[in-house]
Specification:
By secondary structure, this protein is mainly β. The protein has two helices and twelve strands, in the order αβββββββββαβββ. Helix content is 6%, strand content 41%. It comes from Oreochromis niloticus (Nile tilapia). Keywords: Signal.
Length: 195
């Protein structure tokens, strides 16, 4: 039987208003750590800051880091669990979240801030967005679900169903959609679809 938290973590990965090249699924256990690499293409001028943002379950800025300065966090309780290596001016950095909790489950992405002298500063999303699933115990997902969740996302608008199922993606080739009552995952090149 699927727990209610399993339905909460199932969601529609695809996002139509922001163009990111890759969405990566990260599965961790409570108490572990995760590294979120953030990177954009080399450009001039270089970024002067970066945000780590959470979306979907809890929309908020997790942290902000100015070039050559320490980072600030949106929630002071998270300061001891988060570290940043690198600098926005290098066009890449790594953000580590340690002592993970189940409520850290969410979608995360970095947004670099670049000066634009003729108008408002430009905000550029990183190359990769992450869906972080944090669970307790040995297995965060039952085996049929975890074997499907590999690969990238694609744009589609599936209709949620009452129990987990798979179906062809409406706009991508070789893609399987895993739907629950809450929403859907879209994965490219799944290992195997459950019967």
């Amino acid at each position: 039987m699927f727990s209610s938290s399993l339905f909460v973590m199932c969601f529609f990965f695809c996002q139509f208003d922001k163009a990111r090249s890759e969405i990566r699924f990260l599965k961790q256990h409570e108490g572990e750590s995760v590294v979120l690499p953030c990177e954009i293409e080399q450009r001039d001028p270089a970024p002067w800051g970066v945000y780590l943002k959470r979306t979907w379950l809890n929309n908020k800025d997790v942290l902000f880091k100015y070039t050559k300065e320490d980072f600030t966090v949106g929630n002071s309780a998270d300061k001891s669990r988060i570290s940043v290596s690198g600098d926005p001016s290098f066009h890449s950095l790594n953000i580590t979240i340690s002592q993970l909790k189940a409520n850290d489950t969410d979608r995360y992405y970095c947004e670099f801030v670049v000066e634009n002298p003729s108008s408002a500063d430009e905000k550029i999303p990183s190359k990769t967005e992450y869906f972080l699933l944090v669970g307790a115990g040995e297995s965060v997902l039952p085996p049929p679900l975890s074997s499907l969740l590999r690969g990238s996302s694609c744009p589609l608008r599936p209709a949620p169903v009452a129990s987990p199922t798979t179906s062809p993606c409406s706009s991508c080739s070789q893609t399987t959609v895993l739907c629950t009552a809450a929403s859907c995952f879209c994965t490219v090149n799944p290992i195997a679809a459950p019967a």
